[in-house]
C-alpha cells in the first residue's frame, strides 16, 4: 500500500511539474507576443513615414521611384495585416500564427532592405536584433532566419561586385559581416539573459504561492484541531483574538 501511495504521489508531482512548465511557456509566449506587437507598431510607423518622405521629396519625379514606393507599400500592407491579426484576443495562443507572422515580417523587411540599400548593413543589424529579441519564435528558428539574412546580404554585395578598389571593398565587406554577426551575438546574449530572468521570476512567484498554500493548509489543520478540543463558539473567539493580535497596529 505504501509503495502504491508513493507512486500516486510521485505521479501527481510529475503532473504538477508539467502543468507548471506549460504555464511558464504560456507566460513567456504572452511576453513575446507583447514585444512582437510593439515591434510591429514601431516598424509600421517608420515604414509609413519613409513612404511619405519618398513621395514628398520626389513629388516631381515619382516615375523614377516606382520600385521604392511599391516595395514600401507592400511592406506596409504586410505589417498592417500581421498587426491586425496579432491584436486579436486569441492571437497570443496561436503558435502557427507566431511562426508565420514572424517569417512574413522578416522576409518583407529583409527583401525591402536589400532592394533599397545594397551596401548599408545598419537596417539589417536592427532587423536581426528584432528577430532575436522581439519575435515569438524559438531560438533555433531565429538563428536560422538571422543567418539567412546575413548570407543574403553578403551574396548580394558580392554579386554586385566591387566597383573599383577591390581591396577596400572586401575590407568593408568583412567589417559589415562582423557587424551583422555581432547583431546575432548580442541578440542571443540578450535572449539568454531575459529567459534566465523570466525563469527566476517565475520560480520566485511559484515559491510564494506554494508557501501561501502551505500556510493555508496549516491554518485549516490548526482550526480543525482546535474544534476537536473545544466548542465551536469558543474556538471562533480564540481564532478572532489571534487574528486581532496578528493585525498590524
From TrEMBL:
InterPro entries named among the record's database cross-references: AC_N (IPR032628)
Residue ranges of domain Adenylate cyclase N-terminal in the record: 19-242
Transmembrane segment boundaries: 34-57, 69-90, 137-157, 169-190
Coiled-coil segments: none
Superkingdom per UniProt: Eukaryota
Keywords, alphabetical: Lyase, Membrane, Nucleotide-binding, Transmembrane, Transmembrane helix
CC terms in the record's Gene Ontology section: plasma membrane
Molecular function in Gene Ontology: adenylate cyclase activity; nucleotide binding
GO biological process assignments: adenylate cyclase-activating G protein-coupled receptor signaling pathway; adenylate cyclase-inhibiting G protein-coupled receptor signaling pathway; cAMP biosynthetic process
Pfam families linked to this entry: AC_N
The name this protein goes by in its record: Adenylate cyclase N-terminal domain-containing protein
Taxonomic classification: Eukaryota, Metazoa, Ecdysozoa, Arthropoda, Hexapoda
Amino acid at each position: 500500500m505504501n509503495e502504491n501511495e508513493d507512486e500516486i504521489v510521485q505521479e501527481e508531482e510529475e503532473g504538477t511539474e508539467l502543468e507548471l512548465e506549460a504555464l511558464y511557456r504560456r507566460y513567456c509566449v504572452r511576453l513575446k507576443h507583447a514585444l512582437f506587437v510593439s515591434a510591429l507598431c514601431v516598424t509600421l510607423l517608420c515604414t509609413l513615414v519613409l513612404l511619405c518622405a519618398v513621395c514628398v521629396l520626389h513629388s516631381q519625379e515619382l516615375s523614377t521611384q516606382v520600385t521604392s514606393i511599391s516595395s514600401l507599400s507592400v511592406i506596409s500592407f504586410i505589417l498592417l495585416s500581421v498587426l491586425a491579426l496579432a491584436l486579436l484576443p486569441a492571437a497570443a495562443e496561436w503558435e502557427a500564427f507566431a511562426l508565420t507572422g514572424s517569417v512574413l515580417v522578416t522576409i518583407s523587411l529583409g527583401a525591402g532592405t536589400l532592394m533599397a540599400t545594397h551596401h548599408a548593413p545598419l537596417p539589417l543589424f536592427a532587423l536581426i536584433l528584432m528577430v532575436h529579441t522581439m519575435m515569438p519564435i524559438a531560438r533555433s528558428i531565429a538563428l536560422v532566419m538571422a543567418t539567412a539574412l546575413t548570407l543574403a546580404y553578403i551574396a548580394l554585395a558580392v554579386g554586385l561586385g566591387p566597383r573599383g578598389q577591390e581591396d577596400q571593398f572586401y575590407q568593408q565587406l568583412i567589417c559589415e559581416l562582423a557587424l551583422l554577426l555581432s547583431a546575432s551575438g548580442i541578440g542571443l546574449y540578450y535572449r539568454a539573459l531575459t529567459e534566465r530572468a523570466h525563469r527566476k521570476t517565475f520560480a520566485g512567484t511559484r515559491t510564494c504561492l506554494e508557501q501561501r498554500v502551505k500556510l493555508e493548509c496549516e491554518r485549516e489543520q490548526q482550526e480543525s484541531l482546535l474544534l476537536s478540543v473545544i466548542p465551536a463558539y469558543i474556538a471562533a473567539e480564540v481564532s478572532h483574538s489571534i487574528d486581532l493580535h496578528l493585525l498590524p497596529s
